[in-house]
Amino acid sequence: AGSGAGSGAGSGAAGSPEASGGSTGGGGWRRPHGPLQRYYGPSAAEAAEAPPDPTDINGPHFDPEVFMTKVRSECPLGQLLAREAALSREIRALDSDMQTLLYENYNKFISATDTIRKMKVDFRHMEAEMDDLAANMAAISASSARVSAALQDRHRRGAQLAGVQALLRKLQALVEVPGRLRRWAGTEPARALRCHARARAVLRHYRHLPSFRAIEDESHAIMAELAQRLRTRLRCETLDPKELTECVEMLLQLEEPAEELSEEFLSQAGTRLEAELAALEAELPAADPSGTATTPPPPASDILDFVDRGSSAFVGTLCQLAGSYRALFGEDTGRLEPFAAALATRYFALLERRLALERGLGDTSLLRVDRYLRALQTFFLGCLGDVRQALAAPRPPGKEGPGLPDLLATLAASVLGQLKAVLAYVQLFTARDVAFASLPYFKGEFCVTAVREGLVVAFVRWLCRTARGFADGPAERGAPAAPPALLLLLARLCLDYENSTISYILTLTDEQFPPQDSGPAVTPGPALCAEARAAAQRLLDHYVQVQGAAVAQMLRKSVETRDWLGTVEPRNVRAVMKRVVEDITAIDVQVGQLFEEGVRRAQSSDSSRRAFSVYSSSRAPGRYAPSYTPSAPMDTHLLSNIQKLFSERIDIFSPVEFNKVSVLTGIIKISLKTLLECVRLRTLGRFGLQQVQVDGHYLQLYLWRFASDERVVQGLLDEVAASAAHRCLDPVPMEHSVVELICERG
């Protein structure tokens, strides 16, 4: 049954040769690498992928009982016998392989055995040698410990000996202190002080010992003599700042009273500084006690040499002494500050006297900022004088002088160029080679307070005030009135400053003298621009008033000097009306040189041909004419009042805009308003009324084109005509065709 089971297993699905891949060529079947695979087992991947099979004879989960049960139940007897034979062949093959492997490696096994035996012997020898070495090392360690202890004991004894020697040297030095102090006190007092300072603490600590107390007393006596000599030197000799500082410092080290030393320090320093101020004052000419001299004598030296000597001698010495005082006496500057302030005031007074001797800027770059401000103001006034002279100079026939645009450009360019030159001069204060220029408390204060505010902003404000002064009150100062062309030019200059120049100047100043973030507040640009615009507005308004008053004066005289009751029938336009038109035309040309045209209200198609009637209104000409009769004079007055109700109110002295049309309109309003008021004060006859009619029509023909709104001219002329008719004893107007003929002929 066992044999049958073994032979029948060969044809099973799990273990038959056919299922495993067939037989070999010799008729027998041999699984490749079977023993090795059974020894090492399946790979991890195969073990993970393959499910557990207890009937797999080569698998890790093989179960003989399950395998035999399956084979007996599934395989016939022939297969079982074939499988038994195959297994027998495999067993014999494995035995043969094992014998062959043993025969082939027998010599190696023998050699390995001999080698292992020899290694064991050598290892026992090595263990014995290591035991001997460990014993030697223990002996060496014991010897090293004994040597180290001996060395430590020797070092301790050496340190004690060195301490004793050092103590002996210190004692010897203390014994020699009085001799050294006596030897150095006369020639090297600083060295004597250092020696005494080193020995003082030890002597005080051991002064209870008689020997140490004797050394201390002798040292104190020597130091007292040294202090007395230093005091005598401080009071009786003239010392330079370095020697003075060293002398006071040594006295402080000798524990002399600081209060007395500070007073003596300032007294000695004041003597030296007074001498330097006297040397500077000797270079200046003596002041005239009577005050009769008009021209000061020329200076003895150049201004730069004077300032350089003052800076290097007086200022340098004062700064050095002030620094020494702070280093010696700390922050107690209650005496130093008034002392330095008094001397600095005298020095600046000498500088003022020396600067007063200068004539012009020249090459004196390092001057005070307020002097540059005064120089700018003088330069601007000189430029204004040149402009006034150019405006007032007589012109030969056929030869024209410089126009207003040229004068304005020259004035603006000259002032701006001079301001740039002054900024370049002042910038030398912040040069890199100037020692104090890099100090933050100087640079921030100087750039903002001195240059931007004290020079640039102050000059711009002074310029605006000076220009506005020509309009505010020349009569109050007793000065002659400024020519109208100068008022117009200054108005344009201030307006240009407001539009661009102020912004450019402030930007240039901030670039050359940048303000600090935490510095003092600055004047904003819009505030300066507002001041310049206000000055320009005041000048232009004053120009309109002056020119309007000039034209009005002609009209007033022409009305007041004429006999309006006994005048003859008009045949021509009066010469004064032609002069008015000529003057207005000249003003139009003058204003047009500096200001833009402006905007006019749309004109009617018949502005120059409008019928000028004593009974018409500007809004509805001829509307009430049929109702007028000479026997009803009150109707004319009523008509005039009704006309005023429906007419726009005309503001005569309203501010003008910065354009030509607005300026001319303001002048015309003042002129015609004056004519109206003068006519209201006169009594007219028939021909007087007709003359007013002719003159008014002539003015209407030419003046409307200069105004911003023709209705302003028409309304004022209508009021003049209505007032003349109201004041007329025989109000018979002239025919309009005759009026036009006379005006065209005139």
TrEMBL record:
Q: Which UniProt keywords apply?
A: Endosome, Golgi apparatus, Lipid transport, Protein transport, Transport
Where is the sequence biased in composition, kind Gly residues?
1-13
Q: Which Pfam families match?
A: VPS51_Exo84_N
In the record, biological process GO terms are: endocytic recycling; Golgi organization; Golgi vesicle transport; lipid transport; lysosomal transport; protein transport; retrograde transport, endosome to Golgi
Q: Where, per UniProt, does this protein localize?
A: Golgi apparatus, trans-Golgi network; Recycling endosome
Q: Which GO terms describe its cellular component?
A: cytosol; EARP complex; GARP complex; membrane
Ranges for region Disordered: 1-63
Q: Which domain of life is it from?
A: Eukaryota
UniProt lists the family membership as follows: Belongs to the VPS51 family.
Q: What does this protein do?
A: Involved in retrograde transport from early and late endosomes to the late Golgi. The GARP complex is required for the maintenance of protein retrieval from endosomes to the TGN, acid hydrolase sorting, lysosome function, endosomal cholesterol traffic and autophagy. Acts as component of the EARP complex that is involved in endocytic recycling.
Q: How does it assemble?
A: Component of the Golgi-associated retrograde protein (GARP) complex. Component of the endosome-associated retrograde protein (EARP) complex.
Please state what the protein is called.
Answer: Vacuolar protein sorting-associated protein 51 homolog
Q: Which organism is it from?
A: Emberiza fucata
What taxonomic ancestry is recorded? Eukaryota, Metazoa, Chordata, Craniata, Vertebrata
